[in-house]
Amino acid sequence: MDSTLFLQQLVNGLSLGSMYALIAVGYTMVYGVLRLINFAHGDIMMVGAYAALFCM
């Protein structure tokens, strides 16, 4: 395995893991305050994904 490929995959994994962590923290904070799962998080994430795709 080439070292540049390893570093690229490491950065990709860390960025994806940090996104998952931010989503989990958002769900945890909302559930901790309201004691209710807010399913609008998925809608907001999809709008953000489409906005990022459009900006590329």
TrEMBL record:
Q: Which domain of life is it from?
A: Bacteria
Tell me which stretches of the chain form a coiled coil: none
The record, for PANTHER family, names: BRANCHED-CHAIN AMINO ACID TRANSPORT SYSTEM PERMEASE PROTEIN LIVH (PTHR11795), HIGH-AFFINITY BRANCHED-CHAIN AMINO ACID TRANSPORT SYSTEM PERMEASE PROTEIN LIVH (PTHR11795:SF371)
State the InterPro entries in the record. Answer: ABC_transp_permease (IPR001851), BCAA_transport_permease (IPR052157)
Spell out the GO cellular component terms annotated for this protein, sorted alphabetically and separated by semicolons: plasma membrane
Q: Name one GO biological process term.
A: L-isoleucine import across plasma membrane
Q: Which family does it belong to?
A: Belongs to the binding-protein-dependent transport system permease family. LivHM subfamily.
Instruction: State the membrane topology.
Output: Multi-pass membrane protein
Q: What is its main location?
A: membrane
Q: Which UniProt keywords apply?
A: Amino-acid transport, Cell inner membrane, Cell membrane, Membrane, Transmembrane, Transmembrane helix, Transport
Q: Name one Pfam family in it.
A: BPD_transp_2
Q: Where are the transmembrane segments?
A: 20-37
What protein does this entry describe? Branched-chain amino acid ABC transporter permease
Query: Which source organism does the UniProt entry give?
Result: Pseudomonas vancouverensis
Location of the protein in the cell: Cell inner membrane
Gene Ontology MF term list: L-isoleucine transmembrane transporter activity; L-leucine transmembrane transporter activity; L-phenylalanine transmembrane transporter activity; L-valine transmembrane transporter activity
